[in-house]
Amino acid sequence: MAESKPPTHAEDSVAMASTASAAATTGITEEIVAANPLRDPRDKRLPRVAGPCVLVLFGVTGDLARKKLLPAIYDLANRGLLPPGFSLVGFARREWRDQDFAQLTHDAIKQHARTPYREEVWKQLSEGIFFCPGEFTDDGAFDALAMMLKEIDETRGTGGNYGFYLSVPPKFFPVVVQQLKRTDLAHGPEASWRRVVIEKPFGHDLKSAQELNAITSAVFPESSVFRIDHYLGKETVQNIMALRFANNLFEPIWNRGYVDHVQITMAEDIGIGGRAGYYDGIGAARDVIQNHLLQLLALVAMEDPTSFGADSLRREKEKVLKAVQLPGDLARSTARGRYAAGWQGGQPVVGYTEEEGIPDNSITETYAAIKVEIANRRWAGVPFYLRTGKRLGRRVTEVAVVFQKAPHLPFSKDDTEILGHNALVIRVQPDEGITVRFGSKVPGTAMEVRDVSMDFAYGESFMESSPEAYERLLLDVLIGDPPLFPHQREVELSWKILDPIEEFWASQGPPEDYPAGTWGPASADEMMARDGRVWRRL
Amino acid sequence: MTSFMLSDTTASKISSQLTHLRHQMGSPAVGMVLTLVVVCDESGQYDAVRAATEAAREHPSRILVVIGRDPDEPNRLDAELRIGESTPGEVILLRLYGELTRHADSVVSPLLLTDTPVVAWWPRESPDVPAKDAIGQLALRRIIDARPASDPVKAVAGRARSYVPGDTDLAWTRLTPWRSLLAAAFDQPVGKVKKGVVEAASGNASAPLLAAWLAERLGAPVKVADSEGPGLTGVTLTTAEGTIKITRSDARLATLSRPGQPDRRVALTRRTTAELLAEEMRRLDPDEVYEAAVRRIGRANRSS
């Protein structure tokens, strides 16, 4: 080197931090470098690009496909992250031809894509769009699919790599998976891969989750099954790990010595919409707590993984889920509710039992709050409160770590009368970021201390609009990078936590009504009051 | 948007005016992640500020635009403050007169955000050794652009002598989509590359960098050949099994062909300056891959 400036301290740490993250995020291993001379772990400009492959989408006409999956595929292509030759095959019970599916995709992209529409990107994508009509029970249709994929391999160079995205209700899983087995689509030749992507719900209790898993695992090995929990694809959720493990500021106080309790909330302002058929009998706890909230709990409470590889990360999450314990008296430590007619955000809305398709004698809850404890050295005695609900005041998802009060206040009682607990809040949506709440002196001659908030807006600080969760997760599926997908063991552990509560609730009759647009039933507030705590006002 | 003019002022007056404006708007917290210093002249100012503010949407920044005016005038500093211009962050245009034009760092230095990275960008003319420039010395990353130089190819070649870790060139940034596509093509096994050609419009600054990168990584000679353009138009790599070729004639859609496989079309659009700048600010550590390419060009020039 001819001349080089001695690195400043900042330069040094920036370099170090990004080398570590590059290794974690770009996933460039020595094998890849050996196989591809143009890849280099130091070359951080080059994005992770999936290898040549075909994505087969079952259930293309559903809401999820139109609003999320197809736009996410376009956004990936627009960011140059899809390989040349990438092909998309739609499978559905429609008398369609390729161009009809292409039209549906085009419309979905125009309406819902995050990144601007560009003709050349669409051209690249549309060349690889195919449609295979048929019923799931129709052997002929799947034979045609197998033929079609073989042909795509030849004309588009996709090398026998297929991902199967089952965007269909779970009752169709067995037949689809069996068809994939029968046509030998589930197992590719050497050096190619076959992956299957499934969406929640992963069952409705432990038993059904195991049955569901038996169906997929009979055909696909666990390493080829990707369970999508779209929360885990969100930037802020991944940032929980950065916040906890890349900083030295928070970890020392991240334990029972300093934390009073943790509140994890996912509130929705919408009702059940057109999902009556799915929702009734499932309810808020199965729909949200079992997957999203328990995954958030695992990420917040777990010990530091030895690496961010799938194995280490899942191991830590499993450990903490195993340590979750329910309080003895479920009547006093859980609450459930059901929205009644009321006003939500300035509009009159109907109650749950008046929604179309909901039977009068339904006992399904639309609000659920539970208290759990984690029996390990770090968290013993620190309650974790999880709540979720529909038709609440507004849409917000957050994790609030609430700290204990200062052990001694050298101020008079009057001065600190309205001083609350310090809190660190991870805002997951809609306004992604982190808030720290602490006491500060009110300007003036008196020593009056009051809570103030300090905000870090993640969305604005780094990205104009951060990638949609589905973009990240689809790319991970195509690359074969599993850390952000829950393992079957995590799914089963979560059901083990929830099943006793569901059983107890089933014997308790209809849930308590709460007016739409409020923050849930009175029993939820009473549950907190018994512990001398309150829910955060959101 | 709030715009504020300060005539015949100083850095400390600008600084207190900024604090005052922020408090007035009710958002005293500073959420900016870096300081971007743009060194340009009055004619290039508009485009540079536009690109920088757009990039600031991804990286909220304090943007300091240093505009050198008539050095024969009496010494004077004029400042224009823009806050809340549809982008997070602040834009400060600094117009320097007289002897002050040679001491821009004395104005810039007190206005840098505390304890956050500093990036310097010369959209047009750049100093011979950016790291030795007074502004360049304040910066962790120094972005130049060989393209507007009178002889872009020579400008790229000259970088080998002046390179210091932290230097980077937008002519290199423009190549990322090309390099990404080439790397993706090599994800499937390809035989040993024997030789290659990069085709581009005459005088294209990026072409020699791409050729040098390929040669460096593949261990094979890669030449640059002239074409009609626009910009880069093709890369041809000859292997034992046949030819891998990427061609792009309209600066939008490229065709990838490789032995034994059908041709495939891939979107390969030229990007705006704002996008290039945003990519530069994403990683602030030295770009060793760029360094290797530049040094290779330097070696080739010395030996010829």
Automatic annotation (TrEMBL), chain A:
Annotated Glucose-6-phosphate dehydrogenase C-terminal domain residues: 241-536
Pathway: Carbohydrate degradation; pentose phosphate pathway; D-ribulose 5-phosphate from D-glucose 6-phosphate (oxidative stage): step 1/3
Gene Ontology biological-process entries: glucose metabolic process; pentose-phosphate shunt, oxidative branch
Pfam families: G6PD_C, G6PD_N
Gene3D superfamilies: Dihydrodipicolinate Reductase, domain 2 (3.30.360.10), NAD(P)-binding Rossmann-like Domain (3.40.50.720)
One function term, GO molecular function aspect: glucose-6-phosphate dehydrogenase activity
Reactions catalysed according to its record: D-glucose 6-phosphate + NADP(+) = 6-phospho-D-glucono-1,5-lactone + NADPH + H(+)
GO cellular component: cytosol
EC number: 1.1.1.49
Residues where NADP(+) binds: R93, E135, F136, K200
Glucose-6-phosphate dehydrogenase NAD-binding domain boundaries: 56-239
Keywords: Carbohydrate metabolism, Glucose metabolism, NADP, Oxidoreductase
Annotated catalytic residues: H292
PANTHER family with a match to the protein in the record: GLUCOSE-6-PHOSPHATE 1-DEHYDROGENASE, GLUCOSE-6-PHOSPHATE 1-DEHYDROGENASE G6PD
Family named by the database record: Belongs to the glucose-6-phosphate dehydrogenase family.
HAMAP family xref list: G6PD
Function: Catalyzes the oxidation of glucose 6-phosphate to 6-phosphogluconolactone.
UniProt-recorded name of the protein: Glucose-6-phosphate 1-dehydrogenase
Species for this entry: Planobispora takensis
UniProtKB/TrEMBL annotation, chain B:
Highest taxon above the source species: Bacteria
Domain Glucose-6-phosphate dehydrogenase assembly protein OpcA C-terminal per the UniProt entry, residue ranges: 165-294
Matching InterPro entries: G6PDH_assembly_OpcA, OpcA_G6PD_C, OpcA_G6PD_N
Coiled coil segments of this chain: none
Domain Glucose-6-phosphate dehydrogenase assembly protein OpcA N-terminal: 52-160
Record Pfam families: OpcA_G6PD_assem, OpcA_G6PD_C
Protein name as it appears in the record: Glucose-6-phosphate dehydrogenase assembly protein OpcA
Species, as recorded: Planobispora takensis
